């Protein structure tokens, strides 16, 4: 007889989970443990660096090996009399928030591996030595480390499929749908963590171009738009090239630096968005001009 579709998917979940747990074992018990041992002997890199590379991989490994995989195995053994996995996945979902930390740390971890491999040949040699072992299947440490990042989206896909294939009267329907909703929220949560990390990296890059002025650097700011602008000087009817950065809370009016050492721009004026007004001007001599007036002062600017 043909196995029902939903059982095939549940089995695929179990099989990929078994493979995943051995991958986590490799990361936690082999790479992390051995690199840590050598770091403690003072032979390779500082212990802190190894901790930063592997983030919370040990907690993730423990959770899957000691809890989720055994529960899943039990479910599949009892499938004939109790065909369900939704309840187990609901128990799993809240713990997947642990991945937020690992995912957020991933880019930094890869950078650290690259940096210290160049700086410390013994560190590089140890990694190369582990990578040569059969258990690594000719793949790099970085490749294995990507696996946890991809695991939650994988759960989401498998579970979506599972719910789609469930017969309407299945005893697992309610649980499975609820589980899918929970996994979906966690996936969104880890994507939000990545988006937030990218936002902060971009913000930091902008601050560096501005020379890291103390009163401007604030992690909660959001850059909305930036670009060159002409400043009109009414005194001598001429324009000069300036540059604007518009954040959610302030407009920075900058002068491009001729000699770019460190910063690209010098902040000449900061206008708070709170109370700022923008008015278009119909100036025949200077088209596309507008006035920006704030508490600090008023500027007459010309766009391209």
UniProtKB/TrEMBL annotation:
The keyword Zinc belongs to this UniProt entry's keyword annotation: yes
GO biological process, one term: cytoskeleton organization
SUPFAM superfamilies: DBL homology domain (DH-domain), PH domain-like
Domain PH: 222-304
PROSITE patterns xref list: DH_2, PH_DOMAIN
TM segment ranges: none
Record keywords: Cytoplasm, Cytoskeleton, Metal-binding, Phosphoprotein, Repeat, Zinc, Zinc-finger
InterPro entries, A to Z: DBL_dom_sf, DH_dom, FYVE_RhoGEF_PH, PH-like_dom_sf, PH_domain, SOS1_NGEF_PH
Gene Ontology terms for molecular function: guanyl-nucleotide exchange factor activity; zinc ion binding
SMART domains hit by this protein: RhoGEF
Domain DH: 5-193
GO cellular component: cytoplasm; cytoskeleton
Coiled-coil ranges (or none): none
Locations listed in the record: Cytoplasm, Cytoskeleton
Listed name of the protein: FGD2 protein
Source species of the chain: Cepphus grylle (Black guillemot)
């Amino acid at each position: 007889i043909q196995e029902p579709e939903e059982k095939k998917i549940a089995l695929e979940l179990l099989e990929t989970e078994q493979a995943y747990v051995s991958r986590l074992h490799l990361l936690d018990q082999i790479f992390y443990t051995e690199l840590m041992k050598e770091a403690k002997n003072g032979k390779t890199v500082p212990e802190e660096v190894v901790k930063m590379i592997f983030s919370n991989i040990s907690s993730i490994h423990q959770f899957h090996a000691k809890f989720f995989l055994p529960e899943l195995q039990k479910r599949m053994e009892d499938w004939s009399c109790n065909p369900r996995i939704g309840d187990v996945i609901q128990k799993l979902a809240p713990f997947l928030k642990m991945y937020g930390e690992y995912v957020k740390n991933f880019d930094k971890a890869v950078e650290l591996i690259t940096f210290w491999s160049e700086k410390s040949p013994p560190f590089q040699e140890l990694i190369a030595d582990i990578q040569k072992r059969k258990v690594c299947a000719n793949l790099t440490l970085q490749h294995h480390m990507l696996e946890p990042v991809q695991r939650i989206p994988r759960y989401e896909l498998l579970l979506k499929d599972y719910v789609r294939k469930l017969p309407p009267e299945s005893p697992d329907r309610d649980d499975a749908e609820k589980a899918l909703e929970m996994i979906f929220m966690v996936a969104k949560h880890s994507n939000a963590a990545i988006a937030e990390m990218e936002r902060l990296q971009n913000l930091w890059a902008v601050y560096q171009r501005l020379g890291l002025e103390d009163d401007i650097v604030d992690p909660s700011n959001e850059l909305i738009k930036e670009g060159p602008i002409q400043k009109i000087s009414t005194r001598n009817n001429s324009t000069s090239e300036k540059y604007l950065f518009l954040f959610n809370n302030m407009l920075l009016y900058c002068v491009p630096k001729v000699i770019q050492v460190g910063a690209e721009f010098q902040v000449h004026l900061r206008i708070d968005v709170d109370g700022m007004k923008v008015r278009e001007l119909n100036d025949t001599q200077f088209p596309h001009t507008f006035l920006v007036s704030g508490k600090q002062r008023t500027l007459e600017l010309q766009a391209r």
